User: What shape does this take?
Amino acid sequence: MGNKIAGIIMLTGTLFLGSCAQQVANTEGKHARVEEIMSTLDNVSEINFKNKKNVLLDVRTPEEFAEGHVAGATNIDVKNPNFTEEISKLDTKKNYYIYCKSGVRAKLATEKMQEKGFKNAKNFKDGMSTYKGTVTK
Assistant: This one.
């Protein structure tokens, strides 16, 4: 009788742990697309922008962009009502590396781009507010 109870307890525990593991896997799968976050903007030099498939996108306002931006960046303001129209002109097959001032607008832009079919849109976790590299005006 003791072996039967021990067997039932082991089976129940195994089923419980297995179901928890499955829930974690499903949760991670749901968020994987949104978590397309690059490291800090200071590592931007590690990306080969001479390769035409890689595009650096600054989603701040034109005024912020004019005050200083990372060399080679293209400016499309995510807060502009025409943002969706502007990104529709871009090649969805290219790799987009997106930044703003602090990372908030870059995340928003990344989500909007992914919704429009951009599979390789990634945002930096920070932005120009902490960037220590060379700034172009």
Notes: Helices lie at 2-31, 62-67, 83-87, 104-115. The longest strand covers residues 54-58. Confidence is low (pLDDT under 50) at residues 6-35.
